Structures are given as structure tokens and as C-alpha cells.
Amino acid sequence: MKIVVLPGDGIGPETMAVAVDVLQTVAHRFELPVELDHDVTGHTSLKRHGATVTPSLLQKVRAADGLMLGPTATYDFKDESKGEINPSKFFRKELDLYANIRPARTYAGLQNKFGSFDLVIVRENTEGFYADRNIASGGSEMLITPDVVVSLRRITRLCCERIARSAFVLAMERGKHVSIVHKANVLRVADGMFIDICRAVASEFPEVRVDDFLVDAMMAHVVRAPERFDVVVTTNMFGDILSDLTAELSGSLGLGGSLNAGDNHAMGQAQHGSAPDIAGQDIANPFSLILSAGQLLAWHGQRTSQTRFVEAANAIEKAVAEAIVAGECTRDVGGALGTAATGRAIVQRLALPISMGKS
Ligand code: NAD
Q: Can you tell me which atom of ligand 1 is nearest the CA of 284?
């Protein structure tokens, strides 16, 4: 499995260094043929190549089996004509990574005010209210007069259908329950179509229970009783916002793993941003990126029927859960370790022979 590794900006390099150690450790322990190809994106690439991403990088990523993308300073990248391209948008769009899978669960050992839960947000990833990826060229945010802006939201039958199918397939492997999150009381046509398509796909999965929630009410439901959700399917912007909330409810934004998957490519990517407020201080939580690396291995294992990759992904999740119980984690999740020391602790756990693995 060839994986291109792009550390990104801010806390990207320090958290990606840990994720790389974890990947190398599980590759050794589970005898996975993993080959890492290190390259650059974000500000480093902008300085070195005049653009945050380059055509040759895209070519390399297309030829690989997966990509690990660290958080990038996307807010800094405003002018594509100066090479300031949002790398996250770029890869999601170019590789058609339409399903953003964002699990959130509570962990033993972490104080939780909201009860235990284990859910997954399945977020459409290629259209919606993301004006910078809605159209083939040009801008879909328009300055009509200096005081009037119109931002387009695109919803298509194809994208609704494939994200709905991703959610129902996932639900069949989990608790057989899909919640559709929308705003069809206001966005009657677009979100009305989204619901109709989700319900049509649901008819192919009669074992799966289906309900739906308005996105504003969902914010209350998920805080009040997150345990009632299993798989939540929603459009792009709603999913982005909702998944930061569920990650934080699970203990920290730094715990939110995230996989961007298409039919032929996938990208592991931390759920959080480049966190410039804590960059370079060795305090960032590396678990989000580590868990995303696990998701990438599992994705590859499932599509190539190589169970060792899935076992490695499970071992990563188990090691993170155990590290939290042992307090071997960063301070945002109640520990006292720095980023690098947290990484060393996880690597130590993962390097143990399987029979000696603590539970
Ligand atoms: P952020 O997600 O970077 O940070 C939000 C808050 O969470 C901050 O207080 C930060 O310190 C904390 N946090 C984030 N990750 C953490 C971690 N791993 N461990 C501990 N604490 C963590 O959001 P922001 O500060 O609004 O954005 C910073 C930059 O990141 C912006 O340029 C934004 O556009 C970009 N961004 C990039 C991505 C991405 O690359 N996928 C996603 C979101 C934001």
C-alpha cells in the first residue's frame, strides 16, 4: 500500500510525525506492505514550489493507494492565481472523495457530561454550501455589489444518492440505524430532494431503521442524548459543523478521526484545523490524525480483502482507548504528556506482541 504523506501547516508536522511512527509500527507488527512517500503541501509547498499543491503532487497521489493529509492553514489561502489553493478542497474534488466518514465515540477514563455514545457522521464531501468546490470553474461566491454577496449551494441527485448509500452500507455493519439530518423546512427543494433520495436508498436496506431531524434541532438532540444515534447522514456544511460538535462531545476535537473516501481513492485527514494557537508547543493531540491513519488502513483492507489491514486499524483504535484510560495522552483529554511523548506511548503499546497486548 503506497501512502503519500503531507504534514501540512501549524500542528500538522508534529502530529503527522506521530501518525507516521504509528503507521510504521503497525506495518511492522502486522506485516503490512506499507510504503510511505513524504512530500509537502500548504505553506511549505507554496514557498518551495509557488503553490500549495502542484500537478506533479496530484499525479503522485493518483498513483498511490492512499493519502495522509495533515491540517493546513486553509484560511490563509485566498488567491488561487497566486498558488494559494485549499489542499483539502483540492484533493477532495480532484479525487472525488465524496464520503467524509467521521466517527465519534466516548472513551472509558474520560469524564463525560453527555453519557456514552458511539456514532458516525457520514458527510457529503463534494458539493453543498462549499462554494469553492461547487462548480467546474469560476467562483460560486459572487460579489453582486460591494454590499451584496451571493453564495451558491449545489445539491445533486448523484451526490445525494452515493452519500446515502455509503451511510446505509455502513449502518449494516453497525447498529442498523440511519438518521438523516437536513433543513428541509427552509431549503425545501434541495433538502427535500436529499431526504427523498435517502428514503429511496433506505428501501434497499429494509433492516435499517431510519429517522430524520432538522439540523438545528439535531444540535440539541445530539447534546441531550447522543447515545440514540448510530449513523448520521447529512450534507456537506451541516456535517462539517455537526462532526466538530460530536468530536468535542466525545472529549476533544483532537479525538476526531476523519476519512475522505471515494470509489478509488481515500485520504486520512484530521478533523481539526492547523490550530496556530498551539502550533510548535508540543501540546497538540495527535489522536485525530492517528485514528484517521487507522481508518485509511481499514478502508484499504476492506476493498482489497486484506484482513491484516483491518486488524491493524482495530489495534490503533484499541491502543488509543487504552492510552486514554492510562492517562498517556495530551492535556485536552486529561493527560499530562506532550504530543511526541503521547506518540511514543502509543507506539510502545502497538509494538507489543499481540498476545501480550494489554486490554
Ligand atoms: P482549529 O480546528 O485549527 O482549532 C480550533 C480549536 O481547537 C483551537 O483552540 C485549537 O487549539 C484546538 N485544537 C485543534 N486541533 C487540536 C488538537 N489536535 N489538539 C488539541 N487542540 C486542538 O480551527 P481554527 O483555529 O479555526 O483554524 C485554524 C486554521 O485551520 C484555519 O486556517 C482554518 O481554515 C484551518 N482549517 C483547516 C482544516 C483542514 O485542513 N482540514 C480544517 C479546519 C480548519
A: 19
Residue 243 CA: distances (Å) to CA of 161, 175, 218, 233, 277:
21, 19, 12, 11, 21
Q: Quick check: 344 pLDDT over 50?
A: yes
Helix axis angle, 87-94 relative to 55-63, nearest 10°?
50
Q: Is the CB of 332 under 6 A from ligand 1?
A: yes
Supply the Cα-derived Rg of the chain in whole angstroms.
20
Protein fold of 113-250: Isopropylmalate Dehydrogenase (3.40.718)
Grid coordinates belonging to 339: 504530543
* pLDDT tens digits, one per residue of 30-54: 999 999 999 999 999 999 999 999 9
Strand 118-124 relative to strand 99-105, pairing: antiparallel
Class of domain 1-97+273-359: alpha beta
Check: CB of residue 337 under 8 Å from CB of residue 329: yes
Taking the CA of residue 70 as reference, the ligand 1 atom at the shortest distance is 40
CA–centroid distance, 171 to ligand 1, in Å, is: 29
Instruction: Return the domain boundaries, the chain.
Output: 1-97+273-359, 113-250
What is the distance between the alpha carbons of residues 89 and 165, in angstroms, rounded to a whole number?
22
Cβ pair 102, 239 in contact under 8 A? yes
Q: How far is the CA of 35 from the centre of ligand 1 (A)?
A: 28
Q: Is the CB of 73 under 6 A from ligand 1?
A: yes
* 113-250 matches 1-97+273-359 in CATH topology: yes
- Contacts for 29 with CB less than 8 Å, ≥ 6 apart: 312, 315, 350, 351, 354
Residue 278 CA to ligand 1 centre (angstroms):
9
Q: What is the pTM of this model?
A: 0.95
